[in-house]
Amino acid sequence: MSDVEEAITRAHHEEWARVVAAVTRRFGDLDIAEEAAAEAFATAVERWPADGVPPNPGAWLTTTANRKAIDRIRRENKRDDKHKEAQMVYEADPPEPVGAIDDDRLRLIFTCCHPALAMETRVALTLRMVGGLTVPEIARAFLVAESAMGQRITRAKAKIKAARIPYRVPAAEDLPARLTGVLAVLYLAFNEGYLATGPDTDPVRQDLTAEAIRLTRLIRALLPQDGEVAGLLALMLLTEARRPARISVSGELVALDEQDRGAWDTGLIAEGHRLVRERLAAAAAGVALGRYQILAAINAVHTSARDIRDTDWSQVLALYDQLIRLDTSPIIALNRAIAVAELDGPEAALAIVDRLAEALAGYHAYHATRADLLRRLGQSQQSRAAYDRAIDLAGNTGETAYLTRRRDQLQ
């Protein structure tokens, strides 16, 4: 890849949300904003190789996207009065920020997470508009067909326009109604960065994980007493802390039991543990723990162990038992089975995993987990078949390399 191509790829990762948010703020239309942003990046692909990468790629892209947006408005509104109206919109100063925090991307998240939209639609739309994820990437996150996901996102943008949903951080009394969707979006965006599914992307997208953490910190400033916001921030920090040890020099995913724990970020771990202790203290006082708080507590157990052999698996299992009462997702059940394998052996875990076959048939981690359990039971032929299926489904390049090596080590 040339230097210019790398610059365009980096700009797309780092600037997409800023460009979309800036154009949305000016024109108030998600369709126009997304199309203008896409056209701006297409123009960069055409012009930067000849003209050179601009000193401030984000500003160049935003200016170009604004011009593309006004061009579209002019095309769609041929009459003079509409043309003048569009020109006034384009030339006017951006409106004053509304809300407690002046952050365009946070406003865009809250716009996409309006209660008028179904929860899954809120999450999908925000991953597209703010996270810059492609429709195939979002479809994989939801385990649905790409065509269905594309239609869902299109309908959501149309509904926001028709309902005149405002582009702003809502007032304090409106925040709780939006919060569940916003946290779900940030969690999925972080996960996409932590284990990127695009075939041509790096195994870990630090731009996405860093942005998810930044926005979660902003929401914590808005809602400092909310336990789930604190829990999600702790979960992200404890997960991000392990990033330096997660990918080998050859680009292969490094499993938790093989990671160099000395490479973990102790500062992030300390901050994450502090947040978890605060939430556990609240639980001891009678405050119920939510999903993200329990997930953060599980990660705190893992990051407290100096060696994989020191992991308190009984505590991990107890936390998963607590979590599964709140979230009956088969993915939670799959992760719980991994803890069962450490305590009761791979045969007991495999019995649990096999019961999830129908629900998780298209999920690569199901087949990877099953392959590992079969390997531990000495069933090499069945393990190989499960690894093959996991490799076919895995979108992450580092994970594919890891699974391939594990399969090839079978006798």
Automatic annotation (TrEMBL):
Domain RNA polymerase sigma factor 70 region 4 type: 109-160
Listed GO biological process terms: DNA-templated transcription initiation
Organism: Streptosporangium album
Protein name: RNA polymerase sigma-70 factor (ECF subfamily)
Domain DUF6596: start-end pairs: 178-278
Matches recorded under Gene3D superfamilies: 1.10.1740.10, Tetratricopeptide repeat domain (1.25.40.10), Winged helix-like DNA-binding domain superfamily/Winged helix DNA-binding domain (1.10.10.10)
Single GO term (MF): sigma factor activity
Superkingdom of source: Bacteria
